[in-house]
Description:
- The complex is a heterodimer.
- By secondary structure, chain A is mainly alpha-helical.
- Chain A has three helices and one strand; from the N terminus they run E-H-H-H.
- Chain B is mainly α.
- Chain B has a domain at 1-89: Four Helix Bundle (Hemerythrin (Met), subunit A) (Up-down Bundle).
- Chain B has six helices and one strand.
- The longest helix of chain B is centred in the last third of the chain and has 33 residues, at 152-184.
- In chain B, 25% of the residues are buried.
- Strand 1 of chain A pairs antiparallel with strand 1 of chain B.
Amino acid sequence: xxxxxxxxxxxxxxxxxxxxxxxxxxxxxxxxxxxxxxxxxxxxxxxxxxxxxxxxxxxxxxxxxxxxxxxxxxxxxxxxxxxxxxxxxxxxxxxxxxxxxxxxxx
Amino acid sequence: xxxxxxxxxxxxxxxxxxxxxxxxxxxxxxxxxxxxxxxxxxxxxxxxxxxxxxxxxxxxxxxxxxxxxxxxxxxxxxxxxxxxxxxxxxxxxxxxxxxxxxxxxxxxxxxxxxxxxxxxxxxxxxxxxxxxxxxxxxxxxxxxxxxxxxxxxxxxxxxxxxxxxxxxxxxxxxxxxxxxxxxxx
Lengths: 106, 185
């Protein structure tokens, strides 16, 4: 049994993906709290994932979905390291403000 | 494209519109909330709406993994850290001089325009006619078969990435614990 198109075309999904990516980029560039920067990064990764899955459906090829799952694993790793850094920063009683974290020295 | 205005098509359109607007609205909410706790809750809503869009694109396994891994595990970790930090998690909304903020908005708008133009130029004409796929497309069976045959290397590299991240998390945690112990003495 084959499945045709139901509902909107792939270009609509791509438009949503582009908006999500731009929203996430705005958060990364604008916000100061490293926690919200990490959350905005997740939105960017999800925008990319949505585009990958939309193209996988468009081409009828499962490789895009495999790529999306790999992106998900990378996002989980990035969150682990990012949150570890945030906890380490707050243990040193430094301000959680990306503009004030100017040096890489402890 | 065949314009079929049957009941199923209309239903899918309605679900798509609700999910897409929930997705975009919660994305904007994540960026605009002052309190990181509310931002994280909005991101959970965003991930749920995205899972619905994945289901409409017949990516059942990715949708399930999204809800389990992201909305489940990753966001719980976020909420724990935000609760641990408490009031210190609050930072000023946006920083820097005003030209920096205007530049950030301009850069984000430029990224949006760039993506739309790039996709429109490269694939605009070809997006209308879509491949028909088997109903097993995106099922756990199909994904597992792809992962263990064509994309075995990506699968193994993913496991190494996760292992390195786990080791990094442990090292970061133990360093900051040692530091806190020295301060207590």
